[in-house]
Amino acid sequence: PYLSLGVATAAFVFQTTVLYPWHHELDEAFHKLKGEQARMLKDFHDMKLKRFDDLERKVIGVERRQVSFLISAVR
Q: What is the DSSP letter of 61?
């Protein structure tokens, strides 16, 4: 019984002095990482939207050239 009490007390002291503060440190790092991941995903999404806009402008330009070529070929 006394040995079990000593082990339990040592485990409790270890948990309250080492693990509990470390838990807060890990939680803070996790939230920071989560925010960084959200920022990176937003940046990637914005980059994809810009690329789609650029591709759309290029396609519209090609279509306009084709239409003007067809109109000039018909005349």
A: H
Amino acid at 67: V
pTM here is: 0.60
Three-state SS string over 12-31 comes to: HHHHHHHHHHHHHHHHHHHH
C-alpha distance from residue 53 to each of 8, 27, 47, 58 (Å) = 64, 39, 10, 9
In angstroms, the CA 37 to CA 28 distance is: 14
Summarised one tens digit per residue, pLDDT across range 26-73 is 999 999 999 999 999 999 999 999 999 999 999 999 999 999 998 888
